Give the backbone structure.
Amino acid sequence: MKSIFDSRSLRLLAAAIVVLNGFFPALWILLTSLKTEGELVSRPITYWPHNPVLENYVRAFTDQPLLKYLGNSFAVALLSTVLSLVVAACAAYAIARLNLKRRQLVLTCIVASSMFPLVTLLVPIFETMRNLNLLNTYTALVLPYTVLNLPVCTLVLVSFFQSISKDLENAAMIDGCTRMGALVRVVIPLAAPGVFTAGILGFVNAWDEFLLALSLNSTPAMRTLPVGISLYQGEFTFPWPTISAALIVAIVPVAVLIALFQERVVGGLTQGGLKG
Amino acid sequence: MKSPASSIEGRPTDAPAPRPGLVDRIKDPDEKTLALILLAPAFILLALIVAYPIGRLIWNSFFDLRLSGGAARFVGLENYALALQDPDFWNATWNTVLITVVTVPGALVVGLGLAMLANLPFKRRWPVRLALLLPWALPLAFVGLIFAWFFHTEFGVVNDVLRRLGVNTPTMWLLSPRLAFAAICGAIIWKTSSFMALILLAGLQMIPKSLYEAAEVDGASKWQQFWQITIPMLMPSIIVALIFRTITALQTFDIPVTMTHGGPGNATQTLAMLIHATTIDYLDVGYGSTLAVLMFVLSLIVTGFYLQRIGRSA
């Protein structure tokens, strides 16, 4: 197939467009975070920092409890991911393997829950959490996030369970394994990549969530990263250098995660998307 | 594929031996019982976090209920009547619909472009793949902050590029209702087009090469191939991506909050922002619930429209 993109230089140009589009905002924030306050407010603006400094990173941690935000984000994202993986794995196994009459309906029910606008759930969830005195606790976020992640985790895991040959499981059962034994010894280990993929998707979703985190956990000590950083605004000015540094700190963990496991993430995303 | 099974063969004989009673009970559970047990946690959570709140929401929408004090008072449809006469509600609805109408097709077009470029035969695929994943992984709130910095009147890179192109008076992007709206749409399209591109890229990779080869033999131009092969073959992926994108576009919250706080005035306030302010800031749960029900109806209408379309084309 001949095309204008057969030429190497044009292919490189295409790659450059995609790469620049994807990386430029993060790169620009990285450059901003390395500039001094003085350089930042000089006009015309500079693109490359003249003498890169790290003081903004120190200030990001000392001006605001950034470490606390990081810890909160990690705790909430990790707890909700593990919880939704356990719940989704159970449900997905039942849907994929057991003799269920209305399996499609069950799956549709779980997936359809993601069609409800989160903000409509926010009002009653806020009211309930307030009545239960759960505002500004990890529980307030972990429970809703678990449910938010349930559809995508279930979808990914169902297709993984379905891809594992039933013969293996049957062989294990003939050899004296119970069904639960076969699930734990054969199916879960073979589905580990699927569990892992679903876990990354869930973690990123929870890490990124803003509306509930802003509404339910607003005290400074309980803020997650997106809430904490967007409320950084100083009393008089918006401290851009510090914010940029904080953004980089907040972006790096997830960026590393997706860089390491990009093929799996893409696989999981498109699977979840295409099967939905 | 025989080996994993045979390696397991030895284990069960020594592992479950110590507790035969328990093993017997879970040895051969009725499949239906097992299915119910396994599905229970998911459905209990869905009932608690989705079904109950939806019911509660509808119930609350008939009450004058303020968490700031005072008992709930049944008001029937009064809240709904109030909402339909509330200029803030119509402003927020209009903004939400406009954002959806602009950013969904926008993200589709940009995403399709990115997907076509990313589908070229590169030697190393990871830089392109990571470039599509990074915007997806960035929190929307961060994207809002970053783009607010891009569009900063004095120190933003957008105005600097414009200055280099000869525009000497800096544009006050986020202080003019229309420009702020455009800037927000730009940020949303940038953020969401990558996910769109990933879905479409997977679709592109599933199109058999032989179709293009056959078209080539028949003398079809690239343009014809795009409209006669690529687009029709991509349709299922496009529809899925559009449904997801539309549902999230109707819920737009993070980016306007972090870019403009809904300003100037309430020129960029969305329905989600209005509901959030009514409920969380003013603690007016009754009216907030009514607004949320109306938003729910709006998204049902849109989803129904899509599903009907799919039903017709299937």
Residues 113 and 197 of chain B are 8 Å apart (CA to CA). The first helix of chain B runs from residue 3 to 9. The radius of gyration of chain B is 27 Å.
